[in-house]
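Hi R.,

Here's the input for the pyridoxal-5'-phosphate complex you asked about:
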Amino acid sequence: MNISQQTSNLRNREAPLEIHGDEFRKLGHQLVDDIAEFLDGLPQRPVTTEESPQAIRKLLGTDILPERGSSANDLLDEAADLLFDHSLFNGHPRFWGYITSSAAPIGALADLLAAAVNPNVGAAVLSPIATEIEAQTIRWIADLIGYPRTCGGVLVSGGNMANFVCFLAARKSKVAWDLNAEGLSASNQRLIAYVSKETHTWIDKAAELFSLGAKSVRWIGTNADQQMDLDALEKQIIADRADNHLPFLVVGAAGTVGTGAIDPLPEIAAICKKHNLWFHVDGAYGALAAVIPGASTELLGLREADSIALDPHKWLYSPLEAGCALVRNPHHLLEAFSHHPAYYNFDGVIEDPPINYHEFGLQNSRGFRALKVWLGLRQVGREGYIQMIGDDIALAQALSKAVGTYPELQAVTQNLSITTFRFIPQDLPDDPMAVEPYLNKLNEELLNRLQKSGEAFISNAIVEGKYLLRACIVNFRTTLSDIEALPEIVIRLGRKLDSEIRPRSLQSG
Ligand SMILES: Cc1ncc(COP(=O)(O)O)c(C=O)c1O
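And here is the predicted structure with pyridoxal-5'-phosphate in place:
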């Protein structure tokens, strides 16, 4: 076909990807019907299927890129079946692994709407209403946890990214030279960040990727409750200054990833003030628990932070992905991230300046992830979140109590909505040196079997060298009956496993 033939056909262009109104309506109604049935039937399904990656790969059939298209109807049917029958469901009432929440159904509808309109929330002119909805969402998140609503903020993909944004804002604000122009090599002082040894692995990535190097992270020890040792923190800061290093950042945890421990945030704030350091709170998991009336003063110390990372896709139950970075002084975000290339025409008028989110973070083009968060907040309000987060915490406490009533289970930690425990057969010899390694092996293998069983899904934590089973309840579908079922599942699988793998040396009689 020559060019003039091709362009003449374009007067009534019919693109292969287009789906017009009637067909779209039909496809959409069918898909929504299928999703509604799937959601209603979730409790009757196993949490996950025990299929190998190879078996799953085979389900996709041919690996040859199609030359020609297929009917959208058939494709959506097939995709829905693949997902409904071969997924791990974090929306299942018995999913308590890692820190991934059940997703609010309104979030799924929000994502459909957001994708249909498809605003680019990098610049206000490209996303007029979406930008204002994101800005309002950020103010409301700040309101929920009692942080100043005048803060700067940006929605990102999750906790790692939110922590990175705050880390970069901190780094820019705390060095005296022009970091953007000169880079880190302008100084021979090493920048130092202080974190507890319970800190999530985002800090490793941040130190490595943003060229500080792993040696710039000081892993401060913790007390028996997995909270940062403040004496050790302050001594280390003083020692580093004496060594001509450049301390710039302390990270406090509002809910550690392992056990949900909350660092003494007010005291960390005071140390940061005294030593002129940026106080960042990693609240990816637990910051939103500050919404609960009577939240501990340790947690409420996050209100003094220079920045906070928190995840709507954890305790606001937004579908993945939604993280949020809050920075007390918005200028620190702009100083770290704002660029104005000549081909951007996003500045608007001085009297009514637009919010251009590309200036607040690492992304340029940005999707409308705020919509699902905003609609969730409007659907249930502050009250709804107080209820759901409070219920998750109450259920985790109930689990800890229930575990304590079974002689073969040992409850170990309980913070926020994370409960840890382990399985201990009753007839092991009284010889900790020999028994502890076996208990670690037994509980690790028990976790693998439990995860594969599809009866419930939990994950693990290591505390003082002990391998623990860990249930993290960030799940508005979980009921007390679900929680009460877990100890007996663990004991049944544990007894069977123990009978199969216990070494002769540890057998009684
Ligand atoms: C305390 C903490 N920080 C950071 C993260 C990373 O969050 P994401 O997986 O959303 O990137 C997590 C994830 O569980 C977390 O618990």
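One thing worth noting: The pocket of pyridoxal-5'-phosphate is lined by residues 99, 158-160, 163, 200, 202, 255, 257, 282, 284-285, 311, 323 (CB under 6 Å).

Cheers,
M.
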